[in-house]
Description:
- This protein has 752 residues and is an alpha+beta fold.
- It has 15 helices and 30 strands.
- Helix 3 (447-477) runs antiparallel to helix 12 (644-672).
- The chain starts with 25 loop residues before the first helix and ends with a helix.
Amino acid sequence: MEAHAEIPDPPDSPAPSRPARFRTPRRRLWADRAATWTVTGGGLAIIASILGILFFIVIEIYPMLRGAKIASGGEIDLGTTEVGAVIADEHRSHAAVLTRDGHVRVVDLESGKVVRERRILPGEEGGSGVVDARPVPGQQLLSAATADGRVVAIPFAWEVSFDEDRRVVDATIGEPAVFEMDLEGRPVGAFAARIDPEGAGLAAAQLADGSLVLVAREVTVNLFTEERTESWSRTETATPETFSVMVLDEDRLNLYAGTASGKLIWWSLAGTTPGPPQILDAGDSAVSALSLLIGDRSLVVGHEDGAIAVWFGVRQADDSFRLTRIRDFPPHPGPVRLLAPSLRDKGFFAQDDTGRLGLYYSTSRRVLWTGPSPIADATAIFYTPKADGAIVGGAGRLASLEVNNRHPEISFGSLFGKIWYEGYEKPEYLWQSTGGTDDFEPKLSLTPLLIGTLKGTIYSLILAIPLGVLGAMYTSQFLHPSLKRYIKPIVEIMAALPSVVLGFLAGLWLAPRVEKVLPAIFLVLLIGPIAVVLVGYAWRSLPLSFRQRFAAGWETLLYMVVLSITVALCIWASPRFEAAVFGGDIQAWLLDVTGLAYDQRNAVVVGLAMGFAVIPIIFSIAEDAFSNVPRNLTSGSLALGANRWQTVTRVVLPTASPGIFSAIMIGFGRAIGETMIVLMATGNTPIMDWNPFNGFRTLSANIAVEIPEAPHGATLYRTLFLAALLLFVLTFAINTAGDLVRQRLRKRYAEL
């Protein structure tokens, strides 16, 4: 047997080696983590900022969506006093009550005490009383008809003073104006009266025999002696029906009456003489209440069947006006007896016999609030001057209401629908936020601004998309690299031009020149493509040996020269072309033949200026998309026999389509949010049409114009925030849709 002995390792042999473990330096780990946290935090901060802005906008808009809030402000017991009519001061501290016994009592609404009293009917105490009384719409004035055939108008003035920090309101009861209506002393029927601060006035009433009588008082003041001279006139005329209610406008030029048969009658007064009446059918039910809204253009009509409608005069083809039923409100369960218009806006209260009270707004056709009246059998109601309260009077009681009604003008219809405004011949979309007086009816339709935004965007992209995309395609795929190094930076520098400079140049320099050479623009659109095609054909017809002497892309200079010559020739031929084709005046021709009016600052000018601002963005992103197409795709296509144009259109363009679409969407967002160019180059008129030769106003430009003058928290202020939200949502929706399409295109062409 052979023995085997183990041979020990030499004592100095090295141990087996292990691979060294790589360890990332701690400093680099901390730097990597810090960068990760910074990027993540920055992204979250951006998202939080956008959400914060959106949340702030929504908070500013939300109050417009709420209806009115009505709260009880207390009740006062007047004893046995029967209230005929009531008015109040703007601070709702005092009310003036005209009672059936012919007295005016000024009541402190806080303490319930009568602080002033005066008998307004001439004659002995306990004589003829009041048979009917009412406040005069739009004035601090009470009117009454007496049992002996007179009409009395009592003016009021509220004087405010301050005793240290306490406000003191003092009522001044003016001298009553007494109109002798029925000379035989019989009670009159329906009546109406108005007087002005000088004391001149007019009263109208229907007598017991059915005739209409008008009594006018004119007051003349001698400028030297200040002596007042009164003169009276009286007019009587036959009437077609018995009136249930009458109302007279503040200028004493229009008289309205409602009848028990449901007719409306309108007289136009020339001085004190009524013209031929306009008789209209108001419905199947009797007219039970009439009132004029602020401005005296809209007439609110209440009926026995509870219906409420708003009427106003509409201009006809012969320039006459016809009283037209414009709006209807939900009917009340009982006959409407009381109407109280606002002295500040187009709102009004209405109460029926069942005790149901409603607050309405005419323009927006909103039912702001309905509920039980604090006095079910009320005989008088007054909407306080600041539209923040109401005073309701009944048998021996006064009740006050607190009204919180900040934005009655706003509804979905008034913001986005057609509204029939006072003085217009038909419903229209209108934006006109301010007026000279409170009589003005706010017109806050956002539809013209939305159409203007899309109009400016579309006209600018008509120029920017073809030039930007095709220029990027040519620069990336056909131009020699030596030229590309200069052209791309030059185009990208164009994006750095401030929009206010472009707007300034467009409004003051470009717009007048476009107006002057407008026929030349049509000539360029007609002759320019033909000239380019002919030059291209001529270039291709040259010998190949000659064309190869020039680097690819240098033929661009030839096209630039030809286009410059073509434009110069078109401008030179513009007057002759205008005279031959458009009769010497292209603007008159456009208006007569096509109905398109020409405004110097129009969509064409904006398209040129804003297109110039958008082209660099679309060009730069689209050029990167073309350049990033893998070279192996183009090389393979060329190797298979395709020419350069076929390769670009069949391979490169589809592959780059996601990036091109992104470029277009970013350009769209740039155009839709542009402010200064459209503000300075459009005339900034909120006109709703697609006429390229007319101006417009965009959402962004409207915000820039209106926000400095908008009172904080007012309806206009919040409407501008709604416009900002609409712009935000529109941009977000377009970008989201664009990203979805881009992802789909990327997925479709990913395997090319």
